Amino acid sequence: MHDSKDFKIPIGPQHPALKEPEGFSVALKGEKILGVDIRLGYNHRGIEKAAEERTYVQDIYLIERVCGICSHSHSTCFVQAVEEIAGLAVPNRALYIRTIIAELERIHSHLLWLGVAGHEIGFDTLLMYSWRDREVVMDILAAITGNRVNYGMNTIGGVRRDIDAQQAEDILKALTILEERTKYYIEVATQETTIIKRLSGVGVLSREDVLRLDAVGPTARASGVKRDVRADDPYAAYAELSFEVITDDHADVYGRTVVRVKELMESYKIIRQALKNLPTGLLTVRAPRKIPVGEAISRYEAPRGEDVHYVKSNGTEKPERVKIRAPTLANVQAVKHMLRDRYLADMPIVVAAIDPCFSCTDRTVALKEEDCARAKVINWQALHAFGIEWYKQQGIDFTELNKKLQDRLKG
Amino acid sequence: MTQEEKIKESLVNKFNYLSVSIKIVRPRRISIEVSLDNFEPVFAYLARDLQFSHLCTITGLDEPEKLSFIYHLAADSGVLINLKIALPKNSPTLKTVTPYFPGAEIYERELVDLFGAKIEGLPSGHRYPLTDDWPVDQFPLRKEWKADKNA
Fold it and tell me: Which of the two residues, A333 and A82, has the higher pLDDT score?
């Protein structure tokens, strides 16, 4: 694919600049990227297979752990599919509470992203600010659900915790602070020259490419594609709430930034409406332990884009099949495209701009080595040697350098 | 006539044989089963003529005497079609849909790794999601594959 004279830089799977393991092989000519090869799968944990071996209720907690950031997204998407198969009419109050948690999750995820994006372009003040403000929403989530992530709010047929009047008031107070701060971030994102100059024209993805490569979420919306499951295929309480689907026509990292900060304002709007109109009534309906034969596909607009869960049941208490497609998997193909013919220095922010979550992406085959007859425990030295060998095969060899170092130490 | 009924009507008009296998499951959900021979014309018609312009993903199923694959196609109207094909387990060979959706590459690789599907025309590249040294004859999402036995 590439000329042998061109330079190829391997980045990862273990690399200090990467927050999660993924392997990039970047072909370069000078500073210019000719092409990027992405190897995923290092976070593959076998969740889909494991889900077939557990009951529906156990699966809620397993699937919630597909991702630490959008945990509520995955658990909601899963229970929605199961509820559809079982024909459960989930109480309205539960649907509203799910929506409120979903939007609080989006707020914490987008603020987290804003900080990461700031960090990747050397604007660490933005990281410090946005992560400090993110604590406001984290405290609220912890107060309502008991956890900062992996909220455990969902159950089949409803939610497990209520939001009382005092909590509703606390949420509204927090929203006032967050809204004030978000206005400032919108100002920073749209007026700060360094941000505009650094992000404009970087990681370009045209509208046509979004449609061709099936990108989702803010990545798609920043290229003018008005796709949002909350509006297109409404679930939970979204059909009864009014909000705007934010799009932008910049089609670059700058556009993706603008979309996310503006989406924060919509989230505040949604939560306020949901709290104001929070219906009274039950939190759950009783769900059968055994789910009747059937299948359903559920879609959910996670902070990173469309999340898809397919569930097939066989009449027992365990599902026949659970299929999860997290938004990052849909956006990975677009990243390759965004990087082509760009500069190496743009790579961190371009990759960060889809707000990747490789843990989500690589869910699916449990390897329970500790339980198996041929179990092998690998010791530290052997692991070290295996790592060196593995990287050698990828063309990364430090033998010569190590020798030089040893010689120098001796000398 | 609802939007789902309109879609159903135009599909049945174009492909008579679909009249039995097409079902409106609920608002915004339609399911269709097609044979392997009829798959491509129906898929192309959905993707190009009926504006089902987003391939959400492809689900593999071990049923377990045959392997089935469901293509989840969505339109901007929010309607989602599950287009299902079934293949014999000993030769699960099907054509790539990457000419319609280049983004489908990674979904098809999953089917190759986890179900042992053979996909004709799939561009060369890394496997996904299993490791390079994973045994070639083990497909973890097939029902006979057990984590404890095969790990």
Answer: A82
Q: Does B18 touch chain A (CB under 8 A)?
A: no
Q: Residue A333 and residue B74: Cβ atoms within 8 Å?
A: no
Interface check A330 vs B, CB under 8 A: yes
| DSSP state letters, A228-283 | -HHHHS--TTGGGS-------S--SHHHHHHHHHHHHHHHHHHHHHHHHT---S-S
Contact A299 B101 (CB under 8 A): no
Walk across the sheet containing A294-302 and list its strands. A294-302, A305-313, A319-325
Percentage with pLDDT > 70 across chain A: 94
Residues B35-54 pLDDT 10s: 999 999 999 999 999 999 99
pLDDT digits (tens, 9 = 90+) for A10-52: 888 877 767 788 888 899 998 899 989 888 888 888 899 999 9
Nearest chain B Cα distance for residue A64, angstroms:
20
* Residue spans per domain, chain B: 3-144
- B101: chain A residues, CB-CB within 8 Å: 212, 214
Is the whole-model pTM more than 0.80?
yes
Superfamily of domain covering A47-332: Cytochrome-c3 Hydrogenase, chain B (1.10.645.10)
Superfamily of chain region B3-144: NADH:ubiquinone oxidoreductase Nqo5 subunit (3.30.460.80)
